Amino acid sequence: MKIKLGVIFGGETVEHEVSIISALQAIQNLNKDKYEVIPLYISKDRTWYTGHVLLDVENYKDFDFIKKYTKKVTLYKKNGRFYIQNTTGLFRHDITDIDIVLPVVHGNNVEDGTLAGYLDTIGIPYVGSHVLGAALGQDKVTMKQVMMSENLPIVDFTWFYDNEYLENKNEILKDIKKLGYPVVVKPATLGSSVGITYVKSEKDIESAIDEAISYDTKIVVEKAVENLVEVNSSVLGNYEHQRVSPLEEVMGVDEILSYSDKYLSNSKTKGSGSKGMASASRIIPARISKELTNDIKETSKKVFKLLNFSGVVRIDYLIDSKTNKFYVNEPNTIPGSLSFYLWKEDGLKYEDLLDEMISIAIREYKNKSKKVRSFKSNILSGFSGSKGVKGIKGLKK
Question: What is the residue range of 198's domain?
Fold first, then answer.
């Protein structure tokens, strides 16, 4: 019997289209003899849809077409099983049951723990990091603060909220100046290099901050690493076991790897469209020493465990090629293209990578099910209301 796998993608996020690319790549590489795939697309207005038209990337050129030929749905639990329910029209009915979910989402409102929390509330097993790991992986400020607590190598930085910038602009600009230019300005909770600006001098800092604030309420400004080499690793596993992929050296045309480098570099190729992170220019293995490679791999395991990750993540590093010093840049809890291109270099096919991710999720779900999560007894069953809250009457105004 096939495993009924719901693949969730989209969402109200600036990385919406990137999520579609990553999800369809994954769906194409799932073993169809083992899995019955049910696409679950979240539109930009947060409505959920399912239908076969979601499997063709060409159909996403017109979102109205998608909505016309799909069904609005929701997830729910009934009699210990999980179901996709049609919510279109007057009469609701179950479309199919579902065994497990594979979220392939990027960015705010989905990857940041929001979707994980929703799935946990329903109780359905899912692939990838849970609420805490997902939230830490999305917030560039909080993740840095946690990594600092364990003395992991990160660049000097400062951060602030948008309202603080409006109220104390001069003080914040002084703090940034203390870091020393050049700096990198980032929205704190976005990914895919959206809203990021490399700032070489003080005259350009305010426009860079305005750009970041247009995307996020929380801003981080980092001291730029000069003589920069960008290296990424991918980690597969959970808190018990971690396996690290070969390292890649990413070749961008800008001072930092941009959204264009990641997702638009091959967009003019006839008939192909963007291939997501798989299309970025890279050298595998990275052209760094064996000692540095081993140090980064060990650090990747530490970051993975510290931030409570699960499934597959990508952890990005910045290296000063003159000093050979490296810094953890940021983790990606659901990386573009699920980093399959890195695992391919380790002899792990994309199909097998997906299999292993799903197996990890099933093992975690079974293990978690053995833990005490609620009490069968009801302490309110004998509640008289004689003390404290006065029964139902105490709720009346």
Answer: 157-223
